[in-house]
C-alpha cells in the first residue's frame, strides 16, 4: 500500500505529487498515463484479424472438405481440387468479414459501457473513463459509485464501503479520512478505499495511490465479475440444434453415398458428393449470422439511445410482459420547479420558469415584498439553500439560460431560494459546514449540520410524511410552538392537497441545538417549517409509449419513492393507472406476505413510497406469476432488483455505477419511451432471426432432399459437389444476411409478447421449413428430369437446369421469408433494398457460372436456351401462381364479407 495510510495530508500530497484543491492538470495526467499505463486489471482481449481468419478453417466439416480436396489432387482431379479450395477461401473471407464486423461492434459496445469516475482536473469536476485514472488524481466518491482505483481519502462524510468484492466481507465498512493507521492490511486501512469495491453510503474525496495491476485488486489478481457478452439463450439453443442437424445431415449424406456406391457409382465421386452435401446442408453459418443480426440490432438500439450491456437482453426484451418503471426522470422530465410553498398555514405561489433564478412570491395573487411578514418563508428558503448540493451555471456571458449540475430536486430549491436572493454561499460566509448526512432513498431525507462558533444547528429536507413524523415543534410566524395533532392534521391535508395535484412535495425542517452528528439524533425532534411543491411535468413522448405497451400486451407499472397522491396523479395523466387499478404503498407492502402480494399483484399498477428493497419483492412476485419483467433503477440499492429482473435497466444520466454494472440495458436518456423502442427493436430482431432461419434451413432441406430423392429414384446425382458448395457457401449467404436487416413489420407492437421459453420454431415455422424445403426439392428434381429427358440424357444440361432452378427457387423463396403473416404478393419488394441488391448479386453470380466460358468448364455447366429458361420459369412460378390465386380469393371473399356486414 506504499505506506500511504499513515501520512498526513501534506506529506501525502508530496508523495503522490497531487493537488488537493484543483486536481492535476490535463497535461500532467496525459504524461503520467503514458508512463504508468491504463488503470485496468485485465487487458481487453483484442481480436486479431489473422486469428479470426484462421478460425474460419477450423470448422470440422471444412477440414473434411480440405481432406477430400487433397484426395482429389492425389487422384489427379486438379480442377475439382483447386475450385473447391477457391470456394472454401471465398467462404472463409465472407465468414471473416461478418464475424470481424460483429466482434468490432460488440467491443465498441463494451467500451461504451465501461465504468466512469468523477475526478477533479484543472479545478473542475469531470467524468472520465476509469481506465484513464492515474496516481495523484483527485477522485470524488458518491453513494452508488464503484471505487475506480486504490484511493487514500482526503475528506469523507459518513462514508461506507462494500468491500465484499475484495475481502468477501458482506457488511459495509465505515471509512474515515481523518484517521491515520500504521497497518497496511486492507481490512485495517479505514482511510483508504480500494478498486472494485463500491460506495454504499456517504460521500468523499480522495487521491489515487495505485492503479491497474498495482492496486490491491490487481495484486491478488482477483477478478471482478467478468460480465462479457455471453451467448444468448437462442444462440445456445441453436448451437444444440446445430449438433442434431449435423448428425442428421451426416446420416443422410452417408445414406446417399451408400446408395450411390450400391448403384455402381464411382467411390471417390460419391465420397466427394457425400462430403459436399454434408458441408452444404449443415447450417454452420447460422450461429454467425445470428450473432451478426444481434450485433446489428444492438447498434440500432444504440441509435435509439438504449445501450445493451448483456447480449441476452436483446432477445428477452421481446418477451417483456411487464415494464416496472421509476417515475422521476423516466416517466417525468426531471425538470423541476418549485411552484408552491406552504408555510404558516398559507399557500404561496412562486412564479418564474425553469432554472432561471428570477421570479416572484405571491400570496393570494399579491406580491410579497417584505419577507418579515411571513418570516417562516425566509427560514424555509434558507433551509432549501443549505440542504443543497446543486450548482446553477449561466450558459455564457449575457445568456438568459442556466444549466444545473447536481440533483434536480436540489436544483429546484436552489433556484427558488435564489429568487429571494438567498444563496448557500452567503449563508456560508458566517457558518461552516460541520457535516452532511447525504440523501438516500431509504431514509428519504438529507441533513446538513452548520457550525457557528461552538454551536451546531441542523437543517433537514425530505419526504414530508417522514419529516413530519420526526418533528415535535412547528415554526409559526417566527416562533417555535408545539406540533399538536390538530396542526399535524392540517399539514397532512396540505400534503395530500399538493400531492394530488401532481406536485412532488418536500418538507423542510431544522433543529436549533445539535449535540451529536448521529443521524438518529439529528433527524428527530425537529421543528417543522413548511412544504415546497415541485412541478415535474410528464415526458410528452411517454403518453404514446404507454399506449403502445398496452396494445403490445405489456403492462406498465410505476414504482416510485414519491408520495402516493403524486404518483396516482401522474399515473392517471399518463393512463398507466386504469379505473380498476390498485395502488400499493411501501408500508402496505411491508404488511403483505409474499403469497398475499402474488394474489393482488396483477391488479396493482402503482407502487408508491417504496424503498429499493421493495422492488426486489415486486420483481420476485411478478416473476413467480410467470411474467417476464423489465425493471428500471438508478440508486445504489436498486442493484439486487435489477439483477433479479429478466431485463435490468439502469439510467444512463442519473444512474449510479453500481446499478449500471448490474443492468443488462442502460438508457442513455433515462426515458421510458426508449425502453418501449428497445422492446420493439428486440421483437424485430427476433422476427428477423426467425426469417433467416426459415430461409437457410428450408434451402438446406431442399438440397439434401433433392439429392436423397434422386438416389432413391435411381437417378444420377442431380448436382455436382462443386455446384452444391457454390450455392450454399456463396449464393445463399448474402440474401440471408439481408433478411437480418428487415425493418420491423407494422403490427409488431400489436402482437402479444412471446413466451420466454418458446421454441424458435413455434407457430408453425418447422412446418414451413419442411414444406418449402420439399417444394424446392420437387421443383429442382422435376427440372433435372425434364432437362435430362429433353436433352436425351445429357447430364450437363440436366444438371445446369437443376443448378439454375435450385438457385432461382431459393431466390424467390427468400422474398417469401420476409414475413410470416403476409404473402409475397402483399409486400413492397423494394422496402428492403439490401435484399433486392443481394438477390441481384446472387443472380449475376449464377449467370456468370453458366455463361462465362472458363466458369462453365469449372462448374460443368452449359448455357441455357430460351426454351429451357421458359420451362424453368414455368415450374418455379407454378406454386406461386397457386399462392397468388389463394391471396386474390382471400381478398375477394373478405371484401364480400365486409359488404355483407355493412
Ligand atoms: P422515483 O423512485 O420514481 O425516481 P423519487 O425520486 O421520488 O421517485 P426517491 O429518490 O427515493 O424517489 O425519493 C423519495 C422521496 O424523497 C421523494 O418523494 C422526496 O420527497 C424525497 N427526496 C427526493 N430527493 C430528495 C433530495 N435530494 N433531498 C431530500 N429529499 C429528497
UniProtKB/TrEMBL annotation:
Membrane topology per record: Multi-pass membrane protein
Pfam family, one: Cation_ATPase_C
Origin: domain of life: Bacteria
A single Gene Ontology CC term: plasma membrane
Location of the protein in the cell: Cell membrane
Example GO BP: intracellular potassium ion homeostasis
Alphabetically ordered keywords of this record: ATP-binding, Cell membrane, Magnesium, Membrane, Nucleotide-binding, Phosphoprotein, Translocase, Transmembrane, Transmembrane helix
SMART domains referenced in this protein's UniProt entry, alphabetically: Cation_ATPase_N (SM00831)
Positions of transmembrane segments: 57-75, 81-97, 244-264, 270-296, 692-715, 721-741, 769-788, 800-817, 829-851, 871-892
InterPro entries per the UniProt record, alphabetical: ATPase_P-typ_cation-transptr_C (IPR006068), ATPase_P-typ_cation-transptr_N (IPR004014), ATPase_P-typ_cyto_dom_N (IPR023299), ATPase_P-typ_P_site (IPR018303), ATPase_P-typ_TM_dom_sf (IPR023298), ATPase_P-typ_transduc_dom_A_sf (IPR008250), ATPase_P-type_domA (IPR059000), Cation_transp_ATPase_P-type (IPR050510)
Cross-referenced NCBIfam families: ATPase-IIA1_Ca, ATPase_P-type
Protein name according to UniProt: Calcium-translocating P-type ATPase, SERCA-type
The organism of origin for this protein: Proteinivorax tanatarense
Amino acid at each position: 500500500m506504499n505506506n500511504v495510510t499513515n501520512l498526513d495530508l501534506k506529506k501525502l500530497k508530496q508523495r503522490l505529487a497531487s493537488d488537493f484543491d484543483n486536481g492535476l492538470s490535463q497535461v500532467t495526467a496525459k504524461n503520467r498515463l503514458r508512463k504508468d499505463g491504463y488503470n485496468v486489471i485485465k487487458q481487453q482481449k483484442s481480436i486479431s484479424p489473422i486469428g479470426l481468419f484462421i478460425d474460419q478453417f477450423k470448422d470440422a466439416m471444412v477440414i473434411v472438405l480440405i481432406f477430400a480436396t487433397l484426395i482429389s489432387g492425389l487422384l489427379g482431379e486438379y480442377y475439382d481440387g483447386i475450385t473447391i479450395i477457391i470456394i472454401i477461401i471465398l467462404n472463409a473471407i465472407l465468414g471473416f468479414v461478418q464475424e470481424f464486423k460483429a466482434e468490432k461492434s460488440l467491443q465498441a459496445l463494451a467500451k461504451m459501457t465501461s465504468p466512469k469516475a468523477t475526478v477533479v482536473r484543472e479545478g473542475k469536476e469531470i467524468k472520465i473513463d476509469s481506465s484513464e485514472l492515474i496516481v495523484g488524481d483527485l477522485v470524488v466518491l458518491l453513494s452508488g459509485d464503484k471505487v475506480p482505483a486504490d484511493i487514500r481519502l482526503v475528506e469523507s462524510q459518513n462514508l461506507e464501503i462494500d468491500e465484499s468484492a475484495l475481502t468477501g466481507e458482506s457488511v459495509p465498512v465505515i471509512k474515515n479520512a481523518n484517521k491515520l493507521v500504521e497497518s497496511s492490511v486492507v481490512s485495517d486501512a479505514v482511510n483508504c478505499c480500494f478498486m472494485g469495491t463500491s460506495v454504499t453510503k456517504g460521500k468523499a474525496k480522495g487521491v489515487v495511490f495505485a492503479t491497474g495491476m498495482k492496486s490491491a485488486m490487481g495484486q491478488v489478481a482477483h477478478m471482478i465479475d467478468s460480465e462479457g457478452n455471453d451467448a444468448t439463450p437462442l444462440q445456445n439453443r441453436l448451437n444444440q440444434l446445430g449438433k442434431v442437424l449435423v448428425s442428421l445431415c451426416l446420416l443422410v449424406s452417408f445414406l446417399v453415398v451408400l446408395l450411390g456406391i450400391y448403384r455402381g457409382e464411382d467411390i471417390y465421386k460419391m465420397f466427394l458428393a457425400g462430403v459436399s452435401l454434408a458441408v452444404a446442408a449443415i447450417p454452420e453459418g447460422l450461429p454467425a449470422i445470428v450473432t451478426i443480426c444481434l450485433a446489428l440490432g444492438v447498434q440500432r438500439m444504440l441509435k435509439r439511445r438504449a445501450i445493451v450491456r448483456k447480449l441476452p437482453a436483446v432477445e428477452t426484451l421481446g418477451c417483456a410482459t411487464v415494464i416496472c418503471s421509476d417515475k422521476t426522470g423516466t416517466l417525468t422530465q426531471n425538470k423541476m420547479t418549485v411552484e408552491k410553498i406552504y408555510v404558516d398555514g398559507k399557500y404561496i405561489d412562486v412564479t418564474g420558469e425553469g432554472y432561471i433564478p428570477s421570479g416572484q412570491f405571491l400570496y393570494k395573487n399579491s406580491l410579497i415584498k417584505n419577507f418579515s411578514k411571513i418570516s417562516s418563508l425566509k427560514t424555509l428558503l434558507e433551509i432549501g439553500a443549505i440542504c443543497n448540493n446543486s450548482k446553477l451555471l449561466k450558459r455564457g456571458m449575457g445568456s438568459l439560460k442556466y444549466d444545473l449540475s447536481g440533483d434536480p430536486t436540489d436544483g429546484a430549491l436552489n433556484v427558488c431560494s435564489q429568487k429571494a436572493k438567498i444563496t448557500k454561499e452567503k449563508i456560508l460566509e458566517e457558518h461552516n459546514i460541520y457535516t452532511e448526512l447525504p440523501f438516500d432513498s431509504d431514509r428519504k431525507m438529507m441533513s446538513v449540520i452548520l457550525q457557528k462558533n461552538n454551536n451546531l444547528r441542523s437543517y433537514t429536507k425530505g419526504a414530508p410524511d417522514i419529516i413530519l413524523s420526526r418533528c415535535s415543534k412547528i415554526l409559526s410566524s417566527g416562533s417555535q410552538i408545539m406540533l399538536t395533532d390538530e396542526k399535524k392534521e392540517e399539514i397532512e391535508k396540505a400534503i395530500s392537497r399538493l400531492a394530488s395535484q401532481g406536485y412532488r412535495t418536500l418538507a423542510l425542517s431544522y433543529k436549533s441545538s445539535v449535540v451529536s452528528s448521529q443521524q438518529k439524533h439529528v433527524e428527530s425532534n425537529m421543528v417543522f417549517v413548511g412544504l415546497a411543491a415541485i412541478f415535474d411535468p410528464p415526458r410528452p413522448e411517454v403518453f404514446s409509449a404507454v399506449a403502445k405497451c398496452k396494445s403490445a400486451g405489456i403492462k406498465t407499472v410505476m414504482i416510485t419513492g414519491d408520495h402516493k397522491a403524486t404518483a396516482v396523479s401522474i399515473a392517471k395523466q399518463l393512463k398507466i393507472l386504469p379505473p380498476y387499478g390498485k395502488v400499493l404503498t411501501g408500508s402496505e407492502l411491508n404488511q403483505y406476505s409474499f403469497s398475499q402480494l402474488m394474489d393482488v399483484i396483477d391488479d396493482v399498477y402503482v407502487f408508491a413510497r417504496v424503498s429499493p428493497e421493495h422492488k426486489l419483492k415486486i420483481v420476485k412476485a411478478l416473476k413467480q406469476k410467470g411474467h417476464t419483467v423489465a425493471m428500471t433503477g438508478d440508486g445504489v440499492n436498486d442493484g439486487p432488483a435489477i439483477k433479479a429482473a429478466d431485463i435490468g435497466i439502469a439510467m444512463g444520466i442519473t444512474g449510479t455505477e453500481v446499478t449500471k454494472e448490474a443492468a443488462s440495458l442502460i438508457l442513455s436518456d433515462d426515458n421510458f419511451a426508449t425502453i418501449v423502442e428497445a422492446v420493439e427493436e428486440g421483437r424485430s430482431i427476433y422476427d428477423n432471426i426467425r426469417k433467416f432461419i426459415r430461409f437457410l434451413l428450408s434451402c438446406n432441406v431442399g438440397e439434401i432432399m433433392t439429392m436423397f430423392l434422386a438416389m432413391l429414384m435411381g437417378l444420377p446425382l442431380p448436382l455436382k459437389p462443386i455446384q452444391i458448395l457454390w450455392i450454399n457457401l456463396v449464393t445463399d449467404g448474402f440474401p440471408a444476411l439481408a433478411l437480418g436487416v428487415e425493418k420491423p413489420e407494422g403490427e409488431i407492437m400489436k402482437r402479444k409478447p412471446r413466451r420466454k421459453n418458446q421454441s424458435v420454431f413455434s407457430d408453425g415455422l418447422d412446418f414451413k421449413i419442411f414444406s418449402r424445403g420439399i417444394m424446392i426439392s420437387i421443383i429442382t428434381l422435376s427440372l433435372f428430369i425434364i432437362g435430362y429427358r429433353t436433352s436425351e440424357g445429357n447430364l450437363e444440361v440436366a444438371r445446369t437446369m437443376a443448378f439454375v432452378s435450385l438457385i432461382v427457387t431459393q431466390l424467390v423463396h427468400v422474398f417469401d421469408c420476409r414475413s410470416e403473416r403476409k404473402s409475397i404478393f402483399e409486400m413492397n419488394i423494394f422496402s428492403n433494398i439490401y435484399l433486392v441488391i443481394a438477390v441481384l448479386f446472387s443472380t449475376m453470380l449464377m449467370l456468370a457460372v453458366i455463361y462465362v466460358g472458363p466458369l462453365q468448364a469449372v462448374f460443368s455447366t452449359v448455357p441455357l436456351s430460351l426454351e429451357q429458361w421458359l420451362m424453368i420459369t414455368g415450374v418455379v412460378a407454378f406454386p406461386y401462381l397457386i399462392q397468388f390465386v389463394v391471396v386474390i380469393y382471400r381478398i375477394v371473399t373478405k371484401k364480400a364479407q365486409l359488404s355483407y356486414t355493412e
